[in-house]
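Two entries, shown back to back:
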Amino acid sequence: MSLTVEVGILSGRTATVQAGLDEEVNGLTRRAQTVFGVGKGRLLDSSRNVLDARLSIREAGVQTGDSLTLHINQIQLQGSRDPDRSAFAAILGDGSVVTWGDADYGGDSSAVQDQLTNVQQIQASHFAFAAILGDGSVVTWGHAPYGGDSTAVQDQLTNVQHIQASQLAFAAILGDGSVVTWGDADNGCDSSAVQDQLTNVQQIQSTGEAFAAILGDGSVVTWGDADYGGDSTAVQAQLKNVQQIQASNGAFAAILGDGSVVAWGHAPSGGDSSAVQDQLTNVQQIQPSHGAFAAILADAQAVYKFKPNYAQDAAPALKMSVTVEVGLLSGRTAALQVALDEEVDELTSRIQTVFGVGKGRPLDSSGHVLDARLQIKQTKVRTGESLTLHINQIQLQGSRDPDAGAFAAILGDGSVVTWGHAVWGGDSSAVQDELKNVQQTQASSGAFAAILGDGSVLAWGDANFGGDNSAVQDQLTNVQQIQASNGVFAAILGDRSVVTWGSFLFGGDSSAVKDQLKNVQQIQDQLKNVQQIKPSEGAFAAILGDGSVVTWGPWGDADSGGDASAVQDQLTNVQQVQASRSAFAASVDDETVATCGDARAGGNSSAVKDQLKDVKQIQPPAANGVFAAILGDGSVVTWGHAFLCGDSNAVRDQLKNVQQIQSTGEAFAAILGDGSVLTWGDANFGGDNRAVQAQLKGGCLNSG
């Protein structure tokens, strides 16, 4: 039994995917990644809750018609706190972790690598790392005495909500509001003296050698080195109704409910605010540096800095502003003041700095991207609004011809960087100023085309390969999707019509060759309400709204897939089309397959027609043009050039409960339900994985 769900990504692209009720969420996630051609991610339900990858679709509560979102996480990078010795830990999109750098400082996580799955957050001390897993447990590694070994408190580390780190110790807030500490006693590991007070903890901050916790009643508990903020007895009576605490390297500063500020700890690090105490009223936000603090006041007339032994100063600020809450999808938030005449682009840069993340785009509370060129007052942003910084993964597109050697990368802020062979798209300088808020790029063999946020299209590269779209520029409005063949681009517009440009030899202008094309006027008239376009090297296939398919190419060339007349009667209620170099394969709603094009490239499936029943998915074909279909029972059928891995008979008995397939030029690899990987085809192209079979248990698959 299976169901159908719609899966989307944050760019707006969607696809309909079938899933078996007993299939694991992890298998559906992998297939969604394959459909969109994106990196590792996690599936969210319609309420934005992450689906547990280990559950079956049935257990996860997914229903037919549900809308799921594939959240492709940006890699989250955490570096050790010691600037002189470096180690790094990166959370990948699927929640696994990669570490590198000085092994003594946490750069080697091999001892706990198997435990580092579904990681939500990582914190770093000077010598160690601590990771919170999806089930609320904690994994640590690095120098054992300084937080790298949590075995003494491991039984207590359950339902962990947040971790904070000092130089040599960690403190974890549990779901019940209690706190667990470990690491070096002199740096805040020993909280025994205040353990009874650590109840209903809301927030923890740390200096280099001490911790401070805000409790639910607004009071504060501190521990650690007294000289660095671990002893707050001198100001304890003032620490009532505390809203927020910030920390420098050696001092703490707390904002109270009435907007006043209390500071304590190492005076040269900001622990004494007496020189500006009268001015610290109605404070909205405090920003720390290594050895000082800066406070933003509600009237936005000035920003006051306090750091004894340095001249006090007040830097005038803009007189009209709003206060907004900004956050990341990870849950981290911060309050920022924004001048009304500040540009969104400038606000975005400040948000990136606050969170220490890469380029992204701010979304309003409705999920709409704020135009980077507008001023805040020109947007609908108001005081108290919640914004989200969406940090996009870099999207990389390479030219279709490997000999052309050009690349285009969409950065997190929607700009584009190109490199490689200048003539074939590696030089985008002619359109660089216009490449803003880019949503998608596609590549032919010698050019690129980009969809902008307003639905227009920019093209660059060799005009003979689609790099010049000036002849159809007026038609390219409200573009939803672009596909490319070797020398042609085809764009689907909002009204589901199609606009093509590029070399007529590859199907770029059907009207220009209508006298050579059978029923060209009929085909051209049918290109309305198009749902999806798939290119081969020299032809296109379009799925229409009624489930029928229209193909076109150079003079309706059957060997390129451009003439589907022989199977036109079968092309009804088509759900999916896949393309090889010169053939198409269509999955029909009765779970059969129709093919057209060059038989050697998979265009003739008659030899396996009787086996192609209950087809759930056709995999993107190998580069040589061999297709593979996953059936409802988890078995696989392949067809195409037998010598080039179209014959899977040698492993047919083992191809059971297949979850995902990937292909290289002349080989396939399949992930089975038990997490093992089965390969076939040319050993030189990855068809023999015996040397790494033991490592491929339950692993993710990448064809490279």
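entry 2 starts here
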Amino acid sequence: MGDRKATKRLRGASVSARRWVGRDVAFVGPSKTRGAALLLVMWLVALLTALIGAFALTARTENLQGRVQVRGLVAHNAARAGVEYALTRVAMSDQKLQWLPDGRPNRWRYGDAQLEIKIVDENGKVDLNQADAQLLTALLQATGKMEQSEAARLAGAIIDWRDADTLTQPAGGAEDADYASAGRPYGAKDAEFESVAELQQVLGITPELYARIEPLVTVYSGRTRPEQAFAAKEVLDAMGLNGADLVRQRERNQPGSQLQGAGAGGVGGGLVGERSGTYSIESRARLADGRESVLRVVVRAGGGAVPGMPYTPLRWEEGASTR
């Protein structure tokens, strides 16, 4: 009898234990599942937030890049319009409206762009293929701030580059052996300069010196001496004239006026000089937001290779700045 009662008690305890265990499982299991699901949802929300943020940043960046490109294109087109406008003004028959190709700044408004345009006739520059040693030496002295002997040696190197012989100039120069000694993989060209940029290959011409002399020289005029009416101060000085006085005198006279006779600097015939029809033009366009575009070109007026183009481009450099 006692054993039966004990057995019943054990069975009852077992059933109770199973009930409590069942309750425990029923209570703990769903709670853990809900916690894991919540954590997963939070991770998904964080991931989506990051993706949306990255997409928004990319879209904003692309929008800003697009605006920069569009405004840059507007500035570039304005600068190019300045080149064509300069060619129109320099060719005007009305001398009061005509722009003089002597390097003075001219201002013009095109749309929302303010332009500063400078135009120089190539006849006003020193021709690298035609100038003699004396003129080249004087120009190098005026621009390079160097001793006469060093300037003469560099002038000789320029002449040795373009002449057909292998003889060094009397005042010094540079032929093939000199280039080899300097470790250059080339020698003197022994042919004419095809471009002003070629001057950088001449032995002794440093980047700093080239930057100063480049605006003053040409390969397009074919003249042994520059045209005084369009020459810069340094070129006039190299020609033995008082460059500063002549430039001031030129600036005091507006387009259409003439200086009669020979002035203090010895310039006769007034402001009107022999034009080549080939011009260096710097057209700088600035938009209201500060963005700029600059074109530096050398063009020959007249029909171009492309039908309808009013000029033939000989050199074309462009640049831009953004804000």
